[in-house]
Amino acid sequence: MPALLGPVSRCGFSAALLVLWTVFAGFSRAGAEHAATATLPAAFSDLLPHFQVEPEDEYIVKNKPVTLTCRSTPATQIYFKCNGEWVHQDDHLIERTVDPATALPIMQVTIDITRQQVEKIFGLDQYWCQCVAWSTTGTQKSQKAYIRIAYLRKNFEEEPQGKEVALDQEVLLRCHPPEGVPQPEVEWQRNEDILNPESDPNFFVTADHNLIIRKARMADTGNYTCVAKNIVARRKSTSAAVLVYVNGGWSTWTTWSSCSAVCGRGWQKRSRSCTNPTPLNGGSSCEGQNIQKSVCVATCPVDGGWSEWSKWSACGADCSMWRTRECTQPSPGTGGKDCQGLDLQSLNCTSEQCPQSESWLSPERAFVYCQRVSHPFSAPCAFAIGACVCLFLMYEPRQLSLTEGSRECFRSSIVSTENSHLLTIQPDLTTTTTSYQGTLRSRHDTTGKFSMTNGTLLDPLPNGSHTLHNGKLNPDPPEFVSRLSTQSYFKTLPRDVANASYGTFNFLGGRLTIPNTGISLLIPPEAIPRGKIYEIYLTVQRKEDLRLPLAGCQTLLGPVVSCGPPGVVLSRPVILSMDHCSDGCLDNWALRLKKQNYEGVWEDVLLMGEELVSEPYYCQLEAETCRLFSEQLGTFALVGESLHMGAAKRLRLVLFSDAYCSTLEYNIRVYCMDDTQEVFKEVMQMERQLGGRLIDEPHILLFKDSYHNLRLSIHDMPQAHWRSKLLAGYQEIPFYHIWNGSQRYLHCTFTLERLSLSTCELTCQLCVWQVEGEGQSFSLDFNIDTRAIDAEFMLMDSSASALAGPSAFQIPYLIRQKICSSLDAPCPNGADWRMLAQRLKLERHMSFFASKASPTSVILDLWEAQHFHSGNINQLAAVMADIGKQEAMIFLVSDGEC
């Protein structure tokens, strides 16, 4: 009977016939011999078949067949039925076992389904298979297993499209994956990295596979790819570039500058920058002007004029009579000159009340001076005029010894009845003084000489001479030369070196400046030990001559500066000021100070932000300047290492052209340099030698550590009159040439050609941008034959390169000493040096100041270094007054009032 199974399955007998065949098969001996038929023991003859394993849905991948398995117990026969037809008995693979727990026989049958079998009905219906198990009691059917051919089409039904979006804007990227079986899964990638919405909630993938960026960030800029995958294949869509841009915004206007005219009609200006925020990634620049100018009228200075002399006084006890005049016809105003000459005249006279035995400078005469200097001026002015009067008395041709009354006069002239507690500094008039040379001058008048006494303030030199001439030693006394020659630290300075300055200094200190470079060295009072005289130099080293080791992302951020001679002994730190070109954000940088040792090896001596107050170096970083406190002289360089791609250097872009153009060819040179004054000065000097001229104001560009080059191009030239001779559309400066900083300046030359010699006007756009980064453009509009150099933006430093002693400082030495003694001592309410540091916004350096013997003195040193050219001493006096110290009134006195 089982032999009929083949024809039965192929001819498709009716269900009734099959059941009848099944019943007879149980009693057929031939059935017992067939491979798919078995006889159950009598103990299990009444059990229905139970499926342990049923066939599962399967996918045919490429041409690999799939296997279906069916296992049942107890069963006499198991056959598969696919799409309503019985599978041939020869296609079954049968395996028999016994369940050790129940002793029931287990029958397992497997069949293979090929791709060809499924493709016969593909498209008409789904291909399915089911197994049927028999026992003597009845039959059981398994679940249907569906067999499908797996595939994944190549083309996406919808791919994401690139977008340019503003910062914080929502972004929607659509993706409809290719058709496939089984249904493909979708994931998103940005720059080949898989996006995980669970770890970054700013991303969201919708049910229909679209990607939503809730708020676009700068970090979200990149190439986005939709990836579809199933068991067959993995497909990628074309990448969609998302560019997150930032539209520029104006900063607030700066305050108006001072009027350009000293007298009469002039102008003043204010500026703003497109940095709030700075346009990025092609964002629109700010609309409008960045500079505003306004007409102003400056009040003209009025020079003072003398009034008529008063009548002569009666003959005094000192055998003299007096008359006076005042500087009131007119009074000096708005910076006008004071009256020149004497306001007091004396004349010898005789009288019965004129005892000849009286000394020339009697108390009565001193009292007359006191009356003169104490009215109508205030106490500060009385200090200045009183000092002048006493000097006048000291150097009168009839100079005699000073009496107690004259000294009292001096004290009365300094201390008014209203402010007697403010000024208590008195010179020692009992000691011998040196001869006075010249007149009293303003402390910034560097053309004259200043004298020093051998009183309590100054230590005498061996020959009794104390006069320094404009920061240099007086060459006359041979003792000075012999004294210097005996010092082990003295060196002959290379005085022919360009960009260098030198001077001779003692304990009063001074200042060295390299004009127009932003480089200076402040030598505070008491930095040089008393009794010592040093000849000190300051110079800029050429970067290309140095072997400064730079590794990784390190870059040189300023000039390499030398001050020396090395090895001199200093009692307190000097302050070296130099420009830097970093973006000023310490979060972007690891800034290191390097120093060259005696063997020429560069060493790290300081890491900015991690300074130790016990070390001999300390740094104050400002927006464009680095100020180094150093107890040792030597060669220094500021090196920065970028911590991420947000770090940027400030570059200064400067344009030059030929001063005269007599040919059709015309060159424009665009210099790209670090934004420091010393590099700009060198370029200006070089172009002056080449006969070049400046054709536009310098422009500042932030150059980021993004490994991208700098590109420059010229556009929008009038084609009817001009054409470019460059073959390429742009010129490019490699990233590492700029970032390394070892090359002082780089430039590109744009060679243009005018079609006629009569063409003199040129208008065009210069575009400068960092590849895949921010950029800027500015217009050029000038006459190539007649335009002059406009150097208004240049801050020319005309001050002396070396200033010694009091002329180098804004705060007089004696007053400085009084301030330090007043603020150094801790005050319970905090009105001491700590409050001074807070008012000057230097609280970051509190621990450094506290480590010094005189914190106030170090704070004043830093103030002097910061405000030598632009300092307003009255503002410092206001800070003192705000602290509550009466010494603020002292600042109102200046040497010029004498």
TrEMBL record:
Residues 1-32 form the signal peptide. InterPro entries: DEATH-like_dom_sf, Death_dom, Ig-like_dom, Ig-like_dom_sf, Ig-like_fold, Ig_I-set, Ig_sub, Ig_sub2. GO terms for cellular component: plasma membrane. GO terms for biological process: anterior/posterior axon guidance. Keywords: Cell membrane, Developmental protein, Disulfide bond, Glycoprotein, Immunoglobulin domain, Membrane, Receptor, Repeat, Signal, Transmembrane, Transmembrane helix. It is found in: Cell membrane. It is a single-pass type I membrane protein. GO terms for molecular function: netrin receptor activity. Residues 161-239 form the Ig-like domain. It holds the Pfam family Death. Residues 499-642 form the ZU5 domain. Belongs to the unc-5 family. Receptor for netrin required for axon guidance. Mediates axon repulsion of neuronal growth cones in the developing nervous system upon ligand binding. This is Netrin receptor UNC5.
